[in-house]
Amino acid sequence: MSTALLVIDTQMAFVARRDAGHAWANPDADVQIATLLAAFRAKDLPVLHVLHQGQDPRDDFHADAPGALVQPAAAPLPGEPVFIKHGSSAFVGTGLADHLTAQGITGLVIAGGAANYCVESSTRMASDLGYTTTVVGDALINFGQSLRDGRQIPAGDVLALTLANLDGEYAHVAVTSEILTQLAT
After folding, report:
1. pLDDT value of residue 1
2. Computed from CA positions of residues 176, 119, 75, 105, in that sequence, does the dihedral angle turn out positive or negative?
3. What sign results for the dihedral spanned by CA atoms 42, 31, 3, 96?
4. pLDDT of residue 83
5. Which residues, 6 or more positions from 116, have their beta carbon under 8 angstroms from its beta carbon?
């Protein structure tokens, strides 16, 4: 079995939102993502990147928008595959599943953002496709959420619910230190 690190949507639009006052549930998510990248690279394990490109020119993630740029701490190295998606799941319209099959990759360690959007939909689909999936909870970017009735759900609660939805049913939920320990053995 081969396992890859799948880094989803670590783009500057999320940094801009944080800098505009929308707190991340994990303030150090970018540090944890960089730590995971360094660990997988040091072990010469596969690293894959998925980037979102919105279709609407007003979208923060549109290819021509500054928000579409990759966060420096998560920048792909030469030779690391980058898949572009236009929807929520990393598997729809990207060729990711074909690449995983061709490379014999059967396990995924997932980090990135946003936890309750693209990470969750990608994790559910990875599970449905038969991949052994781990989501690294402290290496996820997410924000609070507004409900239809106007209530505001804090970012930490949104993340906790997202991880609860995934844990055991679609993935194993871990923290960065657990992954580092596994890689060391």
Report:
1. 62
2. positive
3. negative
4. 98
5. 142, 145, 158, 159, 161, 162
